[in-house]
Model the fold of this input.
Amino acid sequence: MRPNHQPDDATGAGKGAPRASAPTPPRGPAPEFHAGKWWDALRFALRGRRLLQQQLHRLAALPEDAPRARVAEAQRAASQRLLRHLQVDLQVTGLQHLPRTPGLVVALHEGLADALCLATLPLPMRFVARREVFEWPDIGPALARCGHIAIEPEAGATAYRRLVRAARAALESGDHVLLFPQGCLLGIETAFLPGAFHLARRLAVPLLPIAITGSHRIWEHPFSARLRYGQRVAVQVLPPIGATETRLAEPDALRRRVQRLTKGAALAPGTPPPRHYDAARDGEWPGFRFELDPEWQAGVAHGVDRPLLEPVPVDVG
Done:
């Protein structure tokens, strides 16, 4: 199942992509929070909402000339406070794989709480997010002040050129740039789009894959306002792919390899279950590009509810 309108976008980096004059899709629903259990609703009303606003206001009030190390530490501290309030059981593995050289980080995406969990990593990062998120009250000013990168995927090639410039500037400042190559948070069945891998090749920088699961249960936006406390989230930092390989490998082969690695890690025994896409429940999201993973579909067609996870060789010749 695919959207009724599926333009090439900055995440896909496809040729012949529409220019900035292409129709802009409707914005997603404004963020709301609704804790289902009465005691969680009370906890959020008495403390959680105020804490969220306090942390966002602190980030938005950072000086424009604040050193990037200070910004990274402020983001990390705010994320840790919020996750602690939400009683999230965050399990992080693979910290030994964190690189010292700035590069691209590509992560699975299943919920907006992904950003909170990933921001706790001891790695200075700028997230790439859809521009409408920067328009949300409180959240938008904090993202802008912290230097995160806004994109309009439906602007096509124009958006991709802007992303290249913004990513290069972030890397030169010593930050890593984090992208969600699925381009949506519908579920693990959605495919990685090629834009991040073309970007890694163009900038000739390392690529750090990360698998994250369980975060979709913290906050279900945009599918519902449901907020849950006490959820378990797994963040698995996988071995990086060096700059030489990202520069020489075919981007699509690299995309398929990283897609299999991260999804295989997400499905490993003992990890929190990932989010699954259900078209009847989640809708088709016309105007937003996403694709279903053909390898996952092939597995389902053979009676296996998981993708084909054998390693994919990458040609660097």
Remarks:
- The beta strands are 34-35, 89-93, 104-107, 125-130, 149-151, 176-179, 207-213, 226-227, 232-237.
- The chain has one domain: 34-276+286-301.
- DSSP finds ten helices and nine strands in the chain.
- The CA atoms of residues 115 and 127 lie 8 Å apart.
